[in-house]
Write a structure and sequence with these properties.
Helices cover 40% and strands 13% of the residues. The chain starts with a strand and ends in a 20-residue tail after the last helix. The protein is α/β, with parallel strands linked by helices. A hairpin with a 5-residue loop joins strand 1 and strand 2. Helix 1 runs parallel beside helix 2 and helix 7 crosses helix 8. The relative contact order is 0.15. The protein has an eight-stranded parallel β-sheet with strand order 3-4-5-6-7-8-9-10, covered by helices on one side. A two-stranded antiparallel sheet has the order 1-2.
């Protein structure tokens, strides 16, 4: 099965299906990442905040796969929004992950504690230096993106946001399409909340797939980039096996209609956590 690629607004391509290492303990990350690479994933999503970049980098180095064949995303920790710190820590992430990041994101806008515009300008410098081959943002709302458009030079390649059947984010995704910003979906199965939903289990039974596979396929057919995570090989394989079937238009509409505006994570307009 070949994972489809999405072309970003800077001309780079990103695999639409990846492997996430959020909440995987550092001591388990290398093995989990190696498993994902063995299964066929070529897109790994990590972050400075996760504390496991080093182990991701070690797995890539030990995998026997050329670094150029693996797309690696990381994200700037919330405590490093100062432009000088953003530049320094962007370089640290690159060094841990094979000399560069394929995509480096501002993890949260932190609108109540800092100004993300100078931070983004530091990200632009990382891009120009080749330290980050693409740059983007995570958890940005449309009004945050409008500020970047008005006050900076480079349009984010990606906005990584919470998206799942209970939070479909149609307006923010439409903003992204209009401005050439790809949408990445974190918490794609709502931390498991949607897997027992009657509509999703009905479609799973009809297609002979699991509820998780149905939801991940819904993301793929919507055009979002998605990166489920697991430390269990069978689940890693299951999450990868979503490219050999399609959901009908009626199925897609039924799943999208489950929207409740329900977040499993923080609201980006009020979230202000900065690690000590």
């Amino acid at each position: 099965m070949t994972v489809p690629n999405i072309t970003l607004n800077d001309g780079k391509t990103i695999p639409q299906l990846g492997f996430g290492v959020f909440q995987i303990e550092p001591e388990n990350t290398k093995e989990a990442t190696l498993t994902a690479l063995e299964v066929g994933y070529r897109h790994i999503d990590t972050a400075e905040m996760y504390g496991n970049e080093k182990e991701v980098g070690e797995a890539i180095a030990e995998s026997g796969i050329d670094r150029s064949e693996i797309f690696v995303t990381s994200k700037l920790n919330n405590g490093f929004h100062d432009p000088a710190l953003a530049a320094e820590n962007g370089k640290k992430s690159a060094d841990l992950l094979g000399g560069y990041t394929d995509l480096f994101l501002i993890h949260w806008p932190l609108p109540t504690v800092s100004d993300f515009v100078p931070t983004w300008k530091a990200m632009e410098e990382l891009y120009h230096a080749g330290t980050a081959r693409s740059i983007g943002v995570s958890n940005f709302q449309a009004h945050h993106l409008n500020r970047l458009a008005a006050e900076t030079t480079i349009t984010p390649a990606v906005n990584q946001i919470e998206v799942h059947p209970y939070l479909v984010q149609e307006e923010l995704r439409a903003y992204g399409r209009e401005h050439g910003i790809a949408t990445e979906a974190w918490s794609p199965i709502a931390q498991g909340l949607v897997l027992d939903d009657e509509t999703i289990t009905r479609i799973a039974d009809a297609t002979g797939k699991t509820p998780a596979q149905v939801v991940l396929r819904w993301h793929i057919q919507r055009g979002d980039i998605v990166f489920p995570k697991s430390v269990t090989r069978s689940r890693v394989e299951e999450n990868f096996a979503i490219l050999d079937f399609e959901l009908s238009d009626d199925d897609m509409t039924a799943i999208t209609s489950l929207d409740k505006g329900h977040r499993t994570g923080p609201d980006p307009d009020t979230f202000d956590y900065v690690p000590a």
